[in-house]
Amino acid sequence: MGELRLMKGNEAIAEAAIRSGADGYFGYPITPQSEVIEHLAAQKPEERTGMTLLQAESEIAAINMVYGAAGCGKKVMTSSSSPGISLKQEGITYIAGAELPCLILNVVRGGPGLGTIQPSQSDYFQSVKGGGHGDYHLIVLAPSSVQEMYDFVELGFDLAFKYRNPTMILSDGAIGQMMEKVEIGEQKPRLTEEQIKEKYPWATTGKTKDREKNVITSLELEPEKMEQFNRKLIEKYRKIEENEVRYEEIQCEDAEYLMVAYGTSARICQKSVQIARNEGLKVGLLRPITLFPFPRKRINELADQVKGMLSVEMSSGQMVEDVRLAVNGKVPVEYYGRMGGIVPSTEEALKDLKQKIIGGK
Amino acid sequence: MDEQQAKTEDIIKKENLVFDKTKLLTDKAFHYCPGCGHGVVHRLLMEVIEELDIQEKTIGIAPVGCSVLAYHYMDIDMQEAAHGRAPALATGIKRTLPEKYVFTYQGDGDLAAIGTAETIHSCNRGENITIIFINNGIYGMTGGQMAPTTLENMKSSTTPYGRNVKQMGNPLKITELVAQLPGTCFVTRQAVHKPAYVRKTKKAIKKAFKYQKQEMGLSFIEIVSNCNSGWKMTPNDANKWLENNMLPFYPLGDLKTPEKK
Ligand SMILES: Cc1ncc(C[n+]2csc(CCOP(=O)(O)OP(=O)(O)O)c2C)c(N)n1
Asked: Are B59 and B97 in contact (CB under 8 A)?
């Protein structure tokens, strides 16, 4: 077992970035995630590993700094919260279009607009359906603990480089701010320039005599070629869906009723399941860990087993649409949620399950 | 071989050669309008990179604008930025690869309108990069709309009766502005519509790359250029108009050098 530390979710992200051998972080402060850049600054990553740290003039600049460095094969990331993530969308779609790997953390707060600084899951659609313009997807990881905040930094980078696609960690203000014990990994070395050139031959590292120039771009003016590129992206997303779906099942083996929830909501539902089981109700929980790719096959299978599902979210009902698509009408699928920065209680969620799914039968 | 071809072969014999295209410009024909300044500046940039022998160490950023396809012509590693974001890309590159030479190539809409924040803050941070700024007083690529640099009373497709500064604001001298910032080491305004100016511009570009090597801060080279299509003039008339109208408002010369700040 590695070293254990008590950390905030946001601090865990920062520490994981340094230890994963990241080359750079570019960000702009916003509550509830400013501890990421603050913790990095306090840690002097330039001295610890040579990692670059820069506070940009805006989220737009930060994501474009990420673009530039990622185009050189560097392992770089940014973080923000909802209003800042909206600003980053331009850069994110260019990064997806140029097929660059990078990591983006969204510590979600309630919206729309300036909204609230309290936790929310209302950026689900923006994260899993695209977010910026054009046909693209991010790989979206949803941590539900501080340990997962830590672990998903390295996982997120690995997936980003494996598929040359931006990865988003979709967290929320509760997980960003809460403190839990975290097992810290070993310090990984940063790649040398030679290693980058060998591993990522597409990177702009300076044109040498032995290869053609490298160009990082998302521009293609010929419609046939652009469509071909769109098809290539679809194929990539299909592969991601084939290989990278991750989820956790809690008491699903004999479940008659299923709760579906991610992140903070999943922690709440886990407790609801316990209470229900004590009452003799066979309730299970499916927690998607990847929101894109969505565990739709598994949810469809479970629809053959359970009598109904409840999607519990801190939003006005976003993920429920994907659950319904997965279930494809086999059983009733309902939604329960709170908004505005309010976290639903375990009792509330269970009560709603009883009213809408269990009681109705 | 017919007579004409034989004559041509004779003329292009090595010993007769007075000018050769730098190897760092690809053989792809420019898409630029005849008479446009972009092609000249592309050539100068590539000549400088060849002469300094830094092709292997240089990464360029193309803008959104007429020169969006600059990477078709420049035989170096390049990245294409979103409209106005080139200095942010350059910052990300230079900060993680400090030993490389990094430049951006941007139009006036790209640099002085949508990308103003990225321009000012990269200058203010003193990023060790070179910004090549083509000021043609107009949005060339999208069909000749008003740019931040469009002169008072100058016609464009969105100011068909001339730029009314009361309504549209005044032309922005962003070069004067960035010269005020402590992060810039070399700020100059040049032109390429006559051979003498072309030679001066090339010298300025070379200096900028040298300062970059010495980590002196950001070099900013404005090149007052033409847009005969957007201005709706013949190339010759456009150059005359540039001389009579653009240069009085955008005077040429060094605004700041490391020697005299
Ligand atoms: C976000 C965004 N807004 C608008 C455009 C459309 N657009 C493309 S180029 C351009 C202006 C280019 O003008 P300038 O930077 O002066 O360069 P020039 O074409 O004159 O060389 C505009 C408005 C775009 N591509 N992206």
From this structure: yes
Q: Are strands A52-55 and A76-80 parallel, antiparallel or unpaired?
A: unpaired
Minimal Cβ distance to A94: which of B57, B68, B82: B82
Dist CA B159 CA B140 (whole Å): 14
- What does pTM read for this prediction? 0.97
A162/A288 same-domain check: no
Do A42 and A164 fall within a single domain?
yes
Question: Is A32 contained in some domain?
Answer: yes
Of A26, A207, A213, the CB nearest to B92: A26
So what's the pLDDT on residue B11? Answer: 77
Note the pLDDT of residue B203. Answer: 98
The angle formed by the CA atoms of residues B88, B181 and B209, to the nearest 5 degrees, is 60
> Cβ of B59 and A72 within 8 Å?
yes
Angle in degrees, CA B137, B143, B145, rounded to 5: 45
Mutational test site, ligand 1, from B69, B142, B154, B172, max ligand atoms within 8 Å of CB: B142
Bridge partners, residue B25, by sequence: B74
Backbone angles phi, psi at A215, to 5 degrees: -130, 125
Please give the domain boundaries of chain B with CATH numbers for all domains: 32-260 (3.40.50.970)
pLDDT bucket at A361, cuts 50 / 70 / 90: very low
Q: Residue B153 pLDDT more than 80?
A: yes
Verify that A186 and A291 share a domain, yes or no. Answer: no
pLDDT tens, position by position, A102-161: 999 999 999 999 999 999 999 999 999 999 999 999 999 999 999 999 999 999 999 999
Please enumerate in sequence order all residues whose Cβ is within 8 A of that of A105, keeping only pairs 6 or more positions apart, or say none.
Answer: A13, A33, A36, A77, A78, A79, A80, A168, A169, A171
> Whole domain around residue A121: which residue ranges?
3-194
Asked whether residue A173 falls in the same domain as residue A255, the answer is no
- Binding site membership of B67 for ligand 1 (Cβ less than 6 Å): yes
- What CATH number does residue A312 fall under? 3.40.50.920
**Count of helices and strands (H, E) across chain B:** 12, 9
Q: Tokens 């229900």: give the residue.
A: A276
Dist. CA A191 → ligand 1 center (Å): 37
**Please, what is the average pLDDT of chain A?**
97
Is A71 within 8 Å of B79 when comparing Cβ atoms?
yes
Q: What is the pLDDT of residue B1?
A: 63
For residue A52, the cross-strand partners are A24
In a domain, A83, yes or no: yes
Strand duo B138-139 + B145-146: pairing = antiparallel
Sign of CA dihedral B54, B55, B56, B60: positive
Are A270 and A143 part of one and the same domain?
no
Is the shortest distance between the CB of B108 and ligand 1 below 6 Å? Answer: yes
For chain B, positions 85-144, list CB contacts with chain A under 8 A. Answer: 85, 88-93, 95-97, 100, 117-118, 121
